[in-house]
Amino acid sequence: MNYVNPMKPSERMKLPRQHSIEQDAEIRSHNFKEVSYGVNEALAMQEVQRCLECKDPVCISGCPVSIDIKSFIQYILKKDFVGAVNKIRESNYLPAICGRVCPQESQCEEICTLGKKHEPVAIGKLERFVADYEMQHNLFVPPVIKESREEKVAIVGSGPSGLTCAAELAKLGYKVTVFEALHAVGGVLRYGIPEFRLPRNILDMEAERIKALGVEIITNFLVGRTATIDELFDEWGFKAVFLGTGAGTPTFMGIPGESLSGVYSANEFLTRVNLMKAYDFPNYDTPIKYGKAVAVIGGGNTAMDAVRTSKRLGAEKAYLIYRRSRKEMPAREEEIHHAEEEGIEFVLLTNPIRIVSDVNNWVSGIECQRMELGEPDESGRRKPVPVKGSEYIIPVQTVIEAIGQKPNPIIQQTTQGLDVSKRGTVVVNEVQATSREGIFAGGDLARGGATVILAMRDGKTAASAIHEYLLSKHNGKKQAIPEPFAELTVA
Amino acid sequence: MYPIIHKEFLAPTLGKFIIKAPFIARKRQPGNFVILRVEETGERIPLTLVDSDPANGTITLIVQAIGKTTKLLLTKKAGDVLTDVAGPLGSPTPIENHGAVACVGGGVGTAELLPITRALKQAGNVVYSIVGARNKELIILEKDMYEISDRLFVTTDDGTYGRKGFVTDQLKDLIEGGLGIKAVYAIGPLPMMKAVANLTKNYGVHTLVSLNAIMVDGTGMCGGCRVTIDGQMKFACVDGPEFDAHKVDFDELIMRNRTYVDLEKISIERFEQEQVKLQEALS
Ligand SMILES: Cc1cc2nc3c(=O)[nH]c(=O)nc-3n(C[C@H](O)[C@H](O)[C@H](O)COP(=O)(O)OP(=O)(O)OC[C@H]3O[C@@H](n4cnc5c(N)ncnc54)[C@H](O)[C@@H]3O)c2cc1C
Ligand SMILES: Cc1cc2nc3c(=O)[nH]c(=O)nc-3n(C[C@H](O)[C@H](O)[C@H](O)COP(=O)(O)OP(=O)(O)OC[C@H]3O[C@@H](n4cnc5c(N)ncnc54)[C@H](O)[C@@H]3O)c2cc1C
Ligand code: SF4
Ligand code: FES
User: Fold this and answer.
1) What's the whole-model pTM score?
2) Is A261 within 8 Å of B256 when comparing Cβ atoms?
3) Contact A371, A349 (CB under 8 A)
4) Is A284 or A380 the better-scoring residue by pLDDT?
5) pLDDT tens string B90-113
6) So what's the pLDDT on residue A482?
């Protein structure tokens, strides 16, 4: 590293944080094009000047996959953008995606030294910039795979955990097959996160790069039904399996009126729009129905995506109903901010209690109750309690519930000896091994709804564990399967 | 890509397809279905696995043209390929030897009933089958059902074939006829299944129906196919599609299935205009 930033730390601290160039809020709330264009080269070059190049770069410990952030920033300082992205790729195989969807404000940027007194370095924007630069200039060089190994490994689910595990194992020379139930790869990145946050060409490109490592992807294959895990071992000859099937089953609130026409789970609503392209009906055959006023229930990324999607489809009023206050919302800060800019109406400290029907069995409103914050609960957040007599009805024609998902039980039900928690998550130990020999699991399936980067970390950890497991098998040693220890807590 | 090996019309709006799908063929059980997409811009629709041939790696589907996707599918012929076929989906039908059973099929439901009827026969049941439709032309699979049933009854609403009346008229006679019918399997339009459920409830005869809820993924991921069974929310694609008829909230499902009627109309009109243009261009 021979480039030295000539500025003194005190001067660097004075520089303002650079912001993305974004589509105008009013315009973008009516289209599905990407909201943020990211930072351009000039802005990126200014932003990297701000980095203090700390002796102890704490940012790295804030990154779930420990990207060497300081080094990649130094590559940018030298204008070696490809060097920078390759540095990231040592730890993270999907930089263009993570640069867009990671909650940096609660990870690397939260603990960045500069952030103590000033605004932190815009690490996420820089990650995205180098990944996009490499793509736009066609500079990607696939890694050389040095060895080839006999063993076949099956990856179930093509979300971020599965794709990462597949990439890592392919780099080690294994023959990897990914089985995906849907007709397209990506998991939530495909059917959940909308195009205006993650353009599909980015996802397609990242998927192509994984295929370029020799990974075979079989779509339309629902493991547990098209073949069971035991059949993958016994008949298909796989020597290890990674389960990355996510937490895709939607939960409903259990309030009256949920069967009315016009009530969707966020998963169904987003799947129709994102996977099936219902926004382009009738050019695409899948329909979607939404009224002039839409209410989305929840405060996470899923709720934010659903409500912003409704607005883009043409809803004149798009409400986000959340039972706590803005501060407690689990969504990424940037998404909350963008939603506010786009004119989403936040109905906070409010809990729906009933969905109201018109004569045709269609939604005509949602009855809500106001809440106030009481004592802190297990999660440390103050628990909302209903205010008596505060019930009122908001007129809406569409209700979308985004109150959480749980793992799809098909594999757990069709695989003997797989320990499952009360919450339906698959129990794993610190290297992602399950209670069944040769079966590993990670991502939302093990965590019950977390983040893209944590799913990726699990995929990576599992890949190393699978490698070790297969090496020990190969040498005829019996691998002791570690006792499953306490469930990982959700971030 | 899933090539069509064979296609024939069973009736003017009813087509039978044999499709190459080896993984599905190996694992099919009665009551399973597939979700398919005809082309890249298409919708995902569920269709019952009527039969399969594991040795040749093929599956059989029978499709009634009612809307855009099913009509488009019927324009496809041997040699064409379908973009996606996923399965086998759904929980297999519980097959037991009840002694005597009645299998009741209405319209294209008869196709969905065929594999179940065959399995019930193989399990040792005495099988009384009833096949009904609006008119003679829409009666399908009569010969196939005849071969696997101990007795077969045909009804048409207009009396153009078999007994004039509804399948429930025939079913009532059978149940009252002292044949010892212990279970009824009924598949057809929702109003028909509802009528069967109401009838058999009076006699306390256990009845299974297959619910044709609107589906998207078919894997339990969207909840669009939710139905109410005994007051509980169930997902038809994974918990079903078959449920205890006496516990189903039919009226709710009938309403839910109307959710997209106006958009479905737009789709089909557009498709038919395109077909007309295509015909003109060809002639
Ligand atoms: C709408 C939405 C927005 C989000 N936004 C963000 C965000 O901005 N930032 C962030 O960090 N996180 C976000 N998250 C969370 C994040 O997307 C998930 O934590 C992450 O995708 C989990 O990855 P995964 O690999 O565990 O599984 P998933 O991404 O859920 O993928 C699982 C895949 O497995 C497939 N599958 C399931 N069962 C089977 C089977 N039996 N056989 C074969 N295939 C099967 C599924 O079809 C799916 O494709 C969001 C989630 C949602 C729903
Ligand atoms: C488990 C199951 C098995 C089925 N098996 C068969 C079969 O073997 N043969 C057969 O001909 N039909 C079968 N159906 C019905 C078939 O799926 C619908 O006829 C088809 O989806 C209609 O699509 P369309 O575009 O042609 O018509 P549309 O004009 O889109 O719809 C006509 C009506 O069909 C229903 N429908 C629409 N979209 C869907 C959808 N995605 N999923 C389910 N229903 C929908 C609605 O009630 C709608 O009003 C089955 C349905 C289910 C749920
Ligand atoms: S903590 Fe912040 S300032 Fe320090 S090296 Fe990391 S990004 Fe740069
Ligand atoms: S079709 Fe989506 S859950 Fe059943």
Assistant:
1) 0.93
2) yes
3) yes
4) A284
5) 999 999 999 999 999 998 899 999
6) 43
Asked whether A277 and A425 are in contact (CB, 8 A), the reply is no
Asked if B84 and B9 sit in the same domain, the reply is yes
**Tokens standing for A480?**
């002791």
φ/ψ of A236, rounded to 5, equals -90, -15
Q: Which ligand 1 atom sits closest to the C-alpha of A224?
A: 41
Assess if residue B118 is contained within a domain.
yes
Which among B130, B131, B126, B111 is positioned nearest to B30, based on CA atoms? B111
Domain count, chain B: 2
CATH assignment of the domain containing B40: 2.40.30.10
The C-alpha atoms of residue B140 and residue B153 are separated, in whole angstroms, by 13
- The kind and range of the H/E element at B163 are strand B163-164
Pocket residues: Cβ below 6 A from ligand 3: A 51-54, 57-59, 69-70, 112-114, 121, 123
Question: What is the distance between the terminal CA atoms of chain B, rounded to a whole angstrom?
Answer: 30
The two structure tokens encoding residue A450: 């977390």
Q: Which of B210, B226, B242 is the last residue of a domain?
A: B210
Q: Which of B89, B212, B216, B257 to mutate to test the pocket of ligand 4 (most atoms within 8 A of CB)?
A: B216
Question: Rounded mean pLDDT of A109-117?
Answer: 91
Render pLDDT for A359-390 as a digit per residue (tens, 0 to 9). 889 999 999 999 998 888 887 778 889 999 99
Cα–Cα distance list, A271 to A244, A288, B40, B250 (Å): 19, 10, 15, 26
Q: Give the rounded percent of residues in chain B with a pLDDT score beyond 70.
A: 100
A 10 A CB-CB count for B226 gives 24
CB neighbours of A471 closer than 8 A, spacing ≥ 6?
none
B108 and B189 part of one domain: yes
Contact B23 A226 (CB under 8 A): yes
